[in-house]
Amino acid sequence: MPTKLADKDIARIARALAEPRRFQLLKEIGAAKGGVISCGELRDHHKVTAATLSHHLKELETSGLVTTAKEGKFMSIALNRAVLDAYLAQLQKI
Questions:
Q1: pTM for this one?
Q2: How many Å apart are CA 90 and CA 36, to the nearest integer?
Q3: What is the C-alpha to C-alpha distance for residues 94 and 91, in angstroms, rounded to an integer?
Q4: Residues 77 and 68: beta-carbon distance below 8 Å
Q5: Domains of the chain, each with CATH number or no CATH
């Protein structure tokens, strides 16, 4: 569990969450039963192209907020609670 994120990591997370759709995706991923949701389930809730959804998920993954696991042509996404908690803890210090 990261206890302190670098300034560049904080900025990357802030940029990722500045996009309303990514913020909504993160909320849905965090609320998923078992802590994991499939890419297909997310696509059913968001009427966007697969490429657009992939772009948003990649931004969340690059920021460290989510992790992904591929199984064949399917992908599962999970919230990286440790990174989110570290981000929130550092924001509280401002």
A1: 0.90
A2: 26
A3: 6
A4: yes
A5: 7-92 (1.10.10.10)
